[in-house]
């Protein structure tokens, strides 16, 4: 079970998304279907993963596998 990244469970989690098209794989004009490869970057603050960088040799950020932390459930729709 993943724990939401806020101390107060009723607080919202603000997530920002950046989406970039890496490749247009196929375009079917007749059927109006566009197949692409996308790069999706998500940003949010996890209040439970906060530290003082001065205590850790100036480390400002780190990367943690998504399998180890809460991640937003994002679904892209095609309309």
UniProtKB/TrEMBL annotation:
<keyword id="KW-0812">Transmembrane</keyword>
<dbReference type="InterPro" id="IPR006202">
    <property type="entry name" value="Neur_chan_lig-bd"/>
</dbReference>
<protein>
    <submittedName>
        <fullName>Putative neuronal acetylcholine receptor subunit alpha-7-like</fullName>
    </submittedName>
</protein>
<keyword id="KW-0472">Membrane</keyword>
<dbReference type="Pfam" id="PF02931">
    <property type="entry name" value="Neur_chan_LBD"/>
</dbReference>
<keyword id="KW-1071">Ligand-gated ion channel</keyword>
<keyword id="KW-1003">Cell membrane</keyword>
<keyword id="KW-0406">Ion transport</keyword>
<dbReference type="GO" id="GO:0004888">
    <property type="term" value="F:transmembrane signaling receptor activity"/>
</dbReference>
<dbReference type="InterPro" id="IPR002394">
    <property type="entry name" value="Nicotinic_acetylcholine_rcpt"/>
</dbReference>
<feature type="domain" description="Neurotransmitter-gated ion-channel ligand-binding">
    <location>
        <begin position="2"/>
        <end position="79"/>
    </location>
</feature>
<keyword id="KW-0675">Receptor</keyword>
<dbReference type="InterPro" id="IPR036734">
    <property type="entry name" value="Neur_chan_lig-bd_sf"/>
</dbReference>
<keyword id="KW-0407">Ion channel</keyword>
<keyword id="KW-0813">Transport</keyword>
<keyword id="KW-0770">Synapse</keyword>
<dbReference type="GO" id="GO:0022848">
    <property type="term" value="F:acetylcholine-gated monoatomic cation-selective channel activity"/>
</dbReference>
<dbReference type="GO" id="GO:0045211">
    <property type="term" value="C:postsynaptic membrane"/>
</dbReference>
<dbReference type="InterPro" id="IPR006201">
    <property type="entry name" value="Neur_channel"/>
</dbReference>
């Amino acid at each position: 079970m993943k724990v939401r990244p806020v101390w107060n469970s009723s607080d919202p989690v603000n997530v920002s998304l950046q989406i970039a098209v890496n490749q247009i794989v196929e375009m079917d004009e007749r059927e109006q279907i566009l197949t692409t490869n996308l790069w999706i970057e998500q940003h949010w603050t996890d209040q439970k993963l906060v530290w003082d960088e001065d205590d850790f040799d100036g480390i400002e950020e780190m990367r943690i596998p998504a399998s180890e932390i809460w991640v937003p459930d994002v679904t892209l729709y095609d309309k």
